[in-house]
Amino acid sequence: MNYQDDRCDRIERAGLKVEAGLAAFIEEQVLPPIGQDAESFWSGFAKIVAEYAPRNRALLDKRDALQARIDEWHLARAGKPLDQGAYQDFLREIGYLVPEPAPFAVETGNVDPEIATMAGPQLVVPVLNARFLLNAANARWGSLYDAWYGTDALDAAPAKAGGYDAARGAAVIAAGRAFLDEALPLASGSWADLDDPEAIELADPAQALGETEKGLMFTRNGLMIEVCFDPSSQVGSSDRMGMSDIVLEAALTTIVDLEDSVAAVDAQDKTLAYANWLGVIRGDLADTFEKGGRTQTRELAPDKRLLTKDGEARALSGRSLLFVRNVGHLMTNPAILLPDGSEIPEGIMDAIVTSAISTQDVRGLTKYGNSARGSIYIVKPKMHGPEECAFTNDLFDAVEDLLGLARHTIKVGVMDEERRTSANLAACIAAVRQRVVFINTGFLDRTGDEIHTSMRAGPMIRKNEIKNSTWIAAYEKRNVAIGLACGLSGVAQIGKGMWAAPDRMADMMAQKIGHPRTGANTAWVPSPTAATLHAMHYHQVDVFALREEIAAQPIPPLDDLLQVPLAQGINWSEEEVREELDNNAQGLLGYVVRWIDQGVGCSKVPDINDVGLMEDRATLRISSQHMANWLLHGVCSEAQVMDSLKRMAEKVDAQNAGDPTYEPMAGNWERSLAFKAACDLVFKGAMQPSGYTEPLLHAWRRRKKAQDCVPA
Predict the structure, then answer these.
(1) What are the per-10-residue average pLDDT scores of the chain (712 residues)?
(2) If you placed Cys at 586, which of 492, 516, 607, 608 could pair as Cys (CB 3.0 to 4.6 Å)?
(3) 89 with 176, same domain?
(4) Does 554 share its domain with 636?
(5) pTM of the complete model beyond 0.85
């Protein structure tokens, strides 16, 4: 397809100029099933935009105004220690900090149990990749045997190449028995001693639920465990009881992402994103691909069947419950132009279109169904403070009215990833108290905003040291404590962030158990395999039982949250500065080159030590802002930064040498748009709104698409 977004075919709809392909998609695939007349839809759409686009702009202007005041305050006190009392008085005076609301409990209704009353892993998946999307949606159930056999999570000799390794298999079987002893203790003895499924007698008979087509179903801490038997299978034939697998209920929920993990810059990209969301909601999304020399087609998994001990036949969802993450308030998109010729605020467009698609689920028109409670779940990222949360609440009211949905059908997940939201979290929750179903900490974006908000206060400590800062510990604990104080337990998810190293499952198993121990009932994982392994943590920790103890602890003070991670009195050596710049530059370039040149918004990118890390725009925000901060305060020079960027471009080129579609940056300094984009992100970083990378990435990606297109 030729890239013609700036001169694409447009159709006028109620004064809006809509790209023709997007208009056709909405009018032919989205609206007819829900009985929505196209003329009335676009008329209502235009009214929402007319009311909410100016409000959106005013909120962004307030962000800029607050940042300007904060910059001035820090510049006037350059070189002086930060006085917390004076600092907080100033933040209250300018409206950055708002009064704490009176104690309240959220009032959200019709929430599915996967969100409200269950604890388990959560996946985040880019909407533009249909195969990944299907894999994530199907990750509700995962083979523990496969997860152990194929990763380093099992402390045993790695599997030998060339087919099934019986020794590795035996180690997996032994580990499975040990897991069952812990999760499903027997009335006497060990699972290792059993040789007959009929002889299974649990210490707690209530853990036994019934029979499935493949074996027996059990439960622990609200999650299910399926023990499968097939003596004729390769694994079952070597097991004394014929046990062939242990299947865990894993990714209870998945966030289908239109934001940080995708490169969607125009109508073509957005229409594909919406089409994939429609396909997974409707239940007919499929993807055909080549793997191992064979053509495979992936579809959504059907439900599991359970025959309970009482003889009742039950259907168990075979799929993860889906959220959709819309774009935040900042970005606009040329897919629709307003009457004045400006681009539509992308978050408003997302709210209307993704909700219209999800209305098919609410009306019971889908193959499988997503929400059994008739709710639409939207995660809203990058909101700054309670005013912006209130704006989202009002916008969702308007979308419900447009689509004929009952009030508060659309639920909201609030990403606690911006400093003004963290500092006013209770007020933010109060602003969406009748539709909130999710709060989640996001260390990466939150760190990017931490750096940018205090950009003029001084140089920041090294990036890896920020993880141990006072504010980080307070941020993580305050999020859970405030969520519990606002009554989220039993109503909404309190979530934690991503494990970024998908090949290091042993480390994940050692460290990520810390997330349920905080009282969080979900945490992000990078793959279905990681979800299966992380599910074990929720069998070890009863999150809901733990919360009473956590709720009794005091909320960490605001003083701790607002401690700026400044490098006061630190003089780094030239080698230390070079090392830090190289680390930031390599990660930045490794991500940006795929974003700009290939339109890949999330992938496993080798770090400076060749360890694969899942990267998205949040990691990029930290690296670019950290380099911009050091440059601003003279810790490094422009020449030093450019030297790191050029040397790390050579390293990134070498790391991608096996990709035939990769375009090298080294030596192509003037021609490589990806390299130029990376330079902009650093050298213009201090001037970017809230330190976000999207404006520059989108501008450079559009240039790349225009460069690559065939002339019309």
Answers:
(1) 60 98 98 98 98 98 98 96 97 98 98 98 98 98 98 95 94 98 98 96 98 98 98 95 98 98 98 98 95 91 97 97 98 98 98 98 97 98 98 99 98 98 98 98 94 98 95 97 98 97 97 98 98 98 96 95 94 97 97 97 92 91 98 98 98 97 97 98 98 98 89 48
(2) 608
(3) no
(4) no
(5) yes
Residues 626 and 702 in one domain: yes
478 and 597 part of one domain? no
Question: Which CATH number characterizes residue 585's domain?
Answer: 1.20.1220.12
Count CB-CB contacts under 10 A for residue 163.
8
Q: Verify that 634 and 656 share a domain, yes or no.
A: yes
Task: Quote helix, strand, coil % in the chain, to nearest 5.
Answer: 50, 15, 35
196 annotated binding-site participant:
no
- Does 261 belong to an annotated binding site? yes
Catalytic annotation, residues = 325, 616
* Distance separating alpha carbons of residues 658 and 351, to the nearest angstrom: 40
Is residue 196 a part of any domain in this protein? yes
Residues 259 and 378 in one domain: yes
Q: Cβ contacts of residue 58 below 8 Å, gap of 6+?
A: none
Tell me how far apart the alpha carbons of residues 216 and 270 are, in angstroms, rounded to a whole number.
Answer: 44
Query: Does 34 fall in a domain?
Result: no
Calpha distance 202→282 (Å, rounded): 40
Residue type, 269: D
Which structural domain range is residue 389 located in?
Answer: 58-139+253-286+319-561
